[in-house]
Amino acid sequence: MIEIEKVHKSFGQLKVLKGIDLRVAKGEVLSVIGGSGSGKSTLLTCINGLEPIDSGRILVDGTEVHAKSTDLNKLRRKIGIVFQQWNAFPHLTVVENVMLAQRKVLGRSKPEAEAEAVRQLSHVGLGDKLKVYPSRLSGGQQQRMAIARALAMSPHYMLFDEVTSALDPQLVGEVLDTLRMLAAEGMTMICVTHEMKFAREVSDRVAFFHKGVMAEIAAPAELFGAPKSEELRAFLSATH
Amino acid sequence: MFDTALTSSDFLFLARGAGMTLLVTAISVVLGTCLGIACGIFRFQVGPWWAAPMTFLLDIFRSIPLLIQLVLVNAFLGMVLKLKISGFSVACGVLTLYTAAYCAEIVRGAIEAVPGTTRRAARSLGLTWWQDMTSIVLPLATRVALPSWIGLALGVMKDSALVYIVQVTELLKATQILITRLQEPLLLLMICGLFYFVISFPLARLGGYLERRWSND
Predict the structure, then answer these.
(1) Looking at the predicted complex, does its ipTM rise above 0.90?
(2) Which of A21, A127, A155, B137 has its CA 20 to 30 A from that of A92?
């Protein structure tokens, strides 16, 4: 379970998160929507400790992320994160991209890591691109590789930070299909997304962020069908 | 022009000079690069403010002409501290610092060229700072730094001609000695230039080879 309690976070003078309270249960798929600058992406980077927080706390399976005693490198094994920019390691082939952290962080042997990499890459439809360098892949393929790379670490949670925002429109579908597949397999996921159709179809709950506050959270039918706040109504009508 | 008084032992004398040039260069470039990498990483890691004293020190080595550095360091060690240090050690020491000063800037620039988002992705997979440095930053930064570093190494090789001032008989000094004796400057300088070329060429080609090998896009 991921528990977020009264989290405040600012970059200099700019308050990005103003007291976020949120719980994500095992197996849940939560989508986070909201305008740019609403703090939704920052929340993800706080959950895996890439960003410090000002106050409040975040617990992942009962471990406080920002406590001094927490071994972040160990904690991050549980939490896979995929960013808007897919960030392939350009000097490694696709299969080596997926093997690297398995070998360095989990200490898996080469054949073990390779078998897992091949399994995950086939799973996301890249089984025929193993020995290719990332620069030869399309954006959608690189993004799926990044997803496979995170999944190969056997994470308990997956965080997706606008993973389709930097893709050409015709490539968005293949990545969303991969996310759908993961959701169907029962992965616990937090997806920051601009894809309303995806959020509506796949999520158990949808949270709407507005100016650093979680303005609304509800099941998708309810949130999209009967938005309570004026901000959400305005946001939805602007995105449709 | 081919009617020359140059004997095979003179030629051997030149070759020995070339060997000295190669030795001084090799020691300085290897040690200077190691030191430069350490300084460059330090500079990147702590930021410009905290690294200011070190940057200032390195700037001294970059901005004062090498010839003056050699004379001053030699005089300081020998006459002020009364240390018995060979000209060879002084030459290697000064050239090492000279190399390190340039190398540190190359390394810093190369590390900065590795996208922060790529490093963030590595860290988010659970890689430690050190693992990120060795598996991601080192290979990527090396590709960026290589052309400048090859240029630096070739430059140091040629600058090493100045160490004659601390009584090290390297290639150019050996050539001058023979010119004085044989009075055949053109032939001797041509041979000297050929020696420099033979030393530099493989290094330049190695750079080209590595660049081709590493370009996988």
Answers:
(1) no
(2) A155
Mean of the per-residue pLDDT values for chain A? 89
pTM of the model: 0.80
What is the per-residue burial (b if ≥16 Cβ within 10 Å, else e) of B148-170?
bbbebbbebbebbbbbbbbebbb
Query: Averaged in consecutive runs of 10 residues, what is the pLDDT profile of chain B (217 residues)?
Result: 74 90 94 95 88 89 90 88 86 94 94 92 90 93 91 91 86 90 89 91 87 75
By C-alpha distance, the chain B residue nearest A159 is: B124
CB contact under 8 A, B125 and A146: no
Q: Which of B128, B136, B143 sits opposite A89 (nearest CB)?
A: B136
Question: In chain A, what are the domains?
Answer: 2-239 (3.40.50.300)
Total number of domains constituting chain B: 1
B47 touching A (Cβ < 8 Å): no
The domain containing residue B201 runs over which residues? 9-115+146-209
Q: What CATH number did the domain enclosing B38 receive?
A: 1.10.3720.10
Element (H, E) at A209: strand A205-210
Question: pLDDT tens, A82-100?
Answer: 998 878 999 999 999 999 9
Are A105 and B217 within 8 A, CB to CB? no
Percent helix, strand and coil across chain A, each to the nearest 5: 40, 25, 35
